[in-house]
Amino acid sequence: MTVVAIGSIPLIMTLGNSMLIPILPKMQSELGLSSFQASLTITVFSIVAAFFIPILGYLSDRFSRKAVILPALVLYGLGGILAGFAAWKFQHAFTWILVGRSLQGIGAAGTAPIAMALTGDLYKGAKESRVLGLVEASNGFGKVLSPILGAAIGLIIWFGVFFAFPLVVLISFILSWIFIREKEHAKNPPKPSKYIKGLLSVFKHEGRWLFTAYLAGATCLFTLFGILFYLSDTLETAHHIDGVIKGLILAIPLLVMCTTSYITGSKIGKNQKLMKRLIVLGFIFSTASYATLTFFDNLVPFISVLVVSSVGTGFVLPCINSFITGAVGQERRGFVTSLYGSVRFLGVAIGPPLFGRLMAWSHAGMFLSIAGFTALVGLLSLLMIRVKKEDAEEGAKGSGRKDKKTIQMLEPIEGR
Predict the structure, then answer these.
(1) Which of 35, 136, 159, 377 has the lowest tally of Cβ within 10 angstroms?
(2) CA angle in degrees (0–180, nearest 5) for 258-264-268
(3) How many angstroms separate the Cα of 19 from the Cα of each of 130, 262, 287, 349?
(4) Residue 127's CB: how many other CB atoms inside 10 A?
(5) How confident is the model over 153-164, as pLDDT tens digits?
(6) Phi/psi of residue 367, nearest 5 degrees
(7) How far apart are CA 53 and CA 109, in angstroms?
(8) Do 114 and 52 form a contact (C-beta atoms < 8 A)?
């Protein structure tokens, strides 16, 4: 039940944007908004969350994960209630909706990234990788479920989606309150100056591989949401498909990613050599998929090729999660994983508008540019990640024992 409770937390963050997408046109018409104003309900949430994630990560290191997660869930639910009542009863409803969405963004900052750090605190070895795979699968499941759920609720009343948030939050809050039992944090946590000095030391010695890992995770989310934006637009304009059917089609690549993430997390254990291979293989899959999509316009073959990139994303994300949670000790894990969460959020925020610009430029150019970018990130992952020989041997044996130091990322060796 502890694992179920942890898995419910990232689901909350995922629902925050995706569940609103199907009702945005209705909100725009009901409130007399422009398309830009309607899109702000997504943008405000993401930007606020990206800003507050490192702050709440630090607080979770200083106090405890649960002390951040539970109030964050409450704030997330209250933001949904405020936005819902604003849409239903308030004058100047849109302003209050944005206030509610900002509160939800702050709440979302204390969910999935803190859940990753909590997993690293509670579990070690192969079980940590399995639970991290479940966390990523839960994130993916939320992406699968949310457009379908949002479209279904929108058929009843468009602002009902806002009131659905506190109901989902309540379940996660109860599970987290009852079943999550943390290990005791330090009684005398470091002062902020000492904490920051320790973080600077971490990034000084391990910054290259950490930033490469951050880039890899952000790239997966950037390309995933960008290509979904493209697919959503294509379904309506070229194939005249919308509503729940559109949500079901969008869910196909997400479901593949979700399933692959869960299987990957359950199989990698603490085998860092395997993780590195899967990261590189994942980017190879994504690059091949995006390059090949240049030649397809028909829906069925397009989706068939697109799911190859979803498999690649499902390979990469659980492995990156495992690397990052094991990068530092418990006392600074919250900040490091939260910074990763911020970068992922920025990837989500950048994907749709950038893909929109590329769509206006060139269909073939869009896919080839993205394929080139994923190939570059895959190459960086290959060059920047180095697994210590003894750790690779341990991983090959399937050992679940706690390593003295599971992985060492070395700077590229030049001139040798």
Answers:
(1) 35
(2) 155
(3) 27, 22, 29, 15
(4) 15
(5) 888 888 898 998
(6) -65, -40
(7) 4
(8) no
Calpha distance 289→283 (Å, rounded): 10
- Tokens standing for 367? 């896919």
Structural contact between residues 78 and 150, judged by C-beta atoms closer than 8 angstroms = no
- Tell me the average pLDDT of the chain: 80
Long-range CB contact pairs, 178-182, < 8 A, 24+ = 178/1, 178/5, 179/1, 179/2, 179/4, 179/5, 180/2, 180/5, 180/6, 180/65, 180/66, 180/69, 180/118, 181/2, 182/64, 182/65, 182/66, 182/118, 182/121, 182/122
CA torsion sign, 26 to 29 to 32 to 36? positive
The tokens describing 346, both together, are: 């920025």
Q: Give the global pTM.
A: 0.71
Amino acid, single-letter form, for residue 139: N
| Choice among 66-70, 128-132, 310-314 with the minimum mean pLDDT | 128-132
Please write down the HEC assignment for all residues of 334-365: HHHHHHHHHHHHHHHHHHHHHHHHHHHHCHHH
- 58-62, 97-101, 269-273, 324-328, range with the lowest pLDDT: 324-328
- State both tokens at 386: 């180095």
Per domain, the residue ranges of the chain are 2-181+200-396
The C-alpha atoms of residue 116 and residue 300 are separated, in whole angstroms, by 36
* Residue pLDDT, tens place only, 367-409: 999 999 999 999 999 998 766 554 544 444 544 444 444 334 3
How many helices (H) and strands (E) would you count in the chain? Answer: 15, 0
Give me the half-sphere count of Cα atoms (radius 13 Å) on the Cβ side of residue 159. Answer: 21
Instruction: Read off the amino acid at residue 233.
Output: D
CA 77 to chain centre: 20
Burial zone of 402 (CB within 10 Å; 0-12 exposed, 13-18 middle, 19+ buried): exposed
Q: Which amino acid is located at 380 in the chain? A: L
Q: Within 10 Å of residue 168's Cβ, how many Cβ atoms?
A: 21
Can you tell me the distance from the alpha carbon of 256 to that of 309, in angstroms, rounded to the nearest whole number? 9
